[in-house]
Amino acid sequence: MIDLTAIILTKNEEKNLQECIDSVREVAKRIVVVDSYSTDDTLKIAEANGADIYQHPFENYGKQFQWAMDHTDIDTKWIFRFDADERLTMESAKELEKLCTDNDDTDVNGLIFTLEVVFLGRKLKHGGTYPFKKLCIFKRGMAYMEERSMDEQIVLTSGRTVEMKQVSEHHDFRDLTFWINKHNWYATRAAKDYFDFVGKEDLYEELDFPSKLRRIVKRKIYYRLPTGLRCWLYFVYRYVLRLGFLDGKEGFFYAFFQAYWYRMLVDAKIFEAKKMNAALVDAGDLKA
User: Fold this and answer.
1) Which DSSP helix (H) or strand (E) runs through 13?
2) Is the pTM of this model over 0.85?
3) For the chain, which domains are there?
4) Going along 177-248, which residue ranges are E strands?
5) Which of 29, 42, 82, 250 is surrounded by the fewest CB atoms within 10 Å?
6) What sign results for the dihedral spanned by CA atoms 163, 165, 168, 170?
7) Contact 189, 60 (CB under 8 A)
8) Terminal-to-terminal C-alpha distance of the chain
């Protein structure tokens, strides 16, 4: 077992939470669930599995996670930002344990988590989604969470990162209706994030490489393309150039919804805000 606290943010995660906890219980010394007032059996599941439970109103992921780090009495060497729809595999759990143990006293202060996306029951291997990489594991006191409306990242204040080779799983057991509603919620947050940083210098240099690359592409390339054209190009990139068509119907639906539902909806909300001269605010928690 690692000297590690897994922090899981929840809101109505009864369909996901049990498998999430099961996958991390053998490696994490402590599991902390910070809940934004679930109305399903999320808290019962967390309690039954020995998690330390806190409740706090949700504004955005960055503020919620930073609150969790600051107010849940964490004293372990490592902290793991672990989403309820993610699962460690046996192989990635063993690698996580080894990397944390081997680097307890090195300048490696962060681990880049690698994920495999499951969509409509299929593991996606193409379309630029495999593996998805993000900095999620870090030494206490050596990182902070950005406070922004969307695409918030963990930022190391010192040291370096290494990337996990074993791939974990991102699998939400809820249906397509939930996925669509969630991405409508994401779109409002993404549009607000666009206005928060349009014409301003955004943070790049302090990010880990995968996060830095995604942000530079979005800010320096994607948002400079004409509205409408950029969504079409995004679909072509995912489905054709990155071979998303090899993932069958699931790959098509994923690429289509990412481009023509989610990204187009973000652009529509940006257009609406400009046309109506209306300020966007944080969307709060997802009403699910």
Assistant:
1) none
2) yes
3) 2-171 (3.90.550.10), 176-276 (no CATH)
4) none
5) 29
6) positive
7) yes
8) 34
- Round to whole Å and give the CA distance between 220 and 229: 16
CA dist 26 to 16, 21, 218, 222, Å? 18, 9, 38, 41
> In 3D, which of 146, 112, 151 has the Cα closest to residue 132?
112
Cβ neighbour number for residue 274 with a 10 Å cutoff: 10
Per-residue pLDDT, 72: 97
Q: Which residues pair with 122 in a beta bridge?
A: 119
Task: Name the burial class of residue 118, with classes exposed (0-12), middle (13-18) and buried (19+) by CB atoms within 10 angstroms of its CB.
Answer: middle
* Residue 117, beta-bridge partner list: 170
Q: Return the number of other C-beta atoms located less than 10 Å from residue 29's C-beta.
A: 14
Tokens for 217, please give them: 């592409």
Q: Could you identify the residue written with the tokens 């009864």?
A: 14
